[in-house]
Amino acid sequence: MLPSALEMVRQLIAAPSVSSPDRRFDQSNRGVIDRLAEWAAELGFAVRIESLPGDASKANLIATLGAGDDGLVLSGHTDTVPYNAERWTDDPFELTERGGKLYGLGAADMKSFFAAALHAVERFDPAALRQPITILGTADEESTMNGARALAASGERFGRYAIIGEPTGLQPIRKHKGVFYVQVAVGGKAGHASHPALGVNAIEGVQRVLVALQAWRDTIGDRYFDEEFEVPTPTLNFGRISGGDSPNRICDACTLDVDVRLLPGMKREAVVSELHARVANALDGGPWTFDLRAVGGHADAFSGPTDAGFSTAVETLCGCSAKSALFGTEAPYLAELGLQTLVLGAGDIAVAHQPDEYVTMAAIERATDVYTKLIQRFCTDSP
């Protein structure tokens, strides 16, 4: 018998699993994976733990109950973003109940998903399954997407339908934007600040780059527009500028880090090429050098399942229509494996990635009921 959902969330939050491109913050997810594997085995799942290529500290969980080719996959990531402990009211790794809310790092995004999914499975007799249930727990969704990439690279067929339990307020998400990061590194020449002609100020070069990229951002909506999104155009966010070491020295190197959000149908490689051309034009004829490249992980845009019947069935079971989202998920990688995929989970994305993240017990219980209906529909009622 599984622990209560509350206790499961408590134990998962207590297992740190931060993923970050910055090695100072990056952690293993094996504590979460091993605990999930233990609970899944108790329910009779056949459990596999697969380390990521080149990094034994990170792993994916693949747990299957039943047999067949057209089952249901319930998928979630096991990692969290980094945190600022001093901004939390309580210890982010200790589940705290306050005012009907459960606070903790990953409470909404998305460790509570696993408690809901496993408790939904516990309601079924494995012998009654006509199609299998597969639980996937991935690594590094919040940084490199390497867990989902490894699954996609395997080419393994896990089922026919998939639900990713990211926090959506239990309203299905059928399409979302893509995201990737670009870094522009501008080179100059150091010199004494008292004689500007002796150097080349890289910060001034980045100033030109900013103007050029702002102009691109202001016009891109004329070419790409999707009214189904709350923000119907691609977006460009200038997230960080870094350069210089002293006011009395001409800066010889400056970098600009940019967050780019793409609509479905836009190609990341084409956008990188276009941005490169804009930067080259902005610095043309000047004394600067530059390099522009995509950095870190990325999530492709997701245009939704091709099986309209799947979307309709999930909407009917949830009692609400599917919508679009501005954030990225692992859906494109599952779709690459042939899975008809929707995103559907407890909690609110608005409280994710910030201090005092929370989910309510009522939301977890409702998610458990929804996942139970989905299992019933796709794993026991299927012909």
List the helices and strands and how they pair.
Elements: H1 5-13, H2 30-42, E1 46-52, E2 55-65, E3 72-77, E4 96-98, E5 101-103, H3 107-122, E6 133-138, H4 146-154, E7 161-164, E8 173-176, E9 178-187, H5 202-220, E10 235-243, E11 253-262, H6 268-283, E12 289-299, H7 308-318, E13 323-325, H8 331-336, E14 340-343, E15 358-360, H9 361-380
Parallel strand pairs: 3-6, 3-7, 7-14, 8-13
Antiparallel strand pairs: 1-2, 2-6, 4-5, 5-15, 9-11, 9-12, 10-11
Helix pairs in contact: 1-3, 3-9, 5-6
Can you put this structure into words, describing what you see?
The protein is an alpha/beta fold and 383 residues long. The chain has helices at residues 5-13, 30-42, 107-122, 146-154, 202-220, 268-283, 308-318, 331-336, 361-380, and strands at 46-52, 55-65, 72-77, 96-98, 101-103, 133-138, 161-164, 173-176, 178-187, 235-243, 253-262, 289-299, 323-325, 340-343, 358-360. The longest helix is centred in the last third of the chain and has 20 residues, at 361-380. It is elongated.
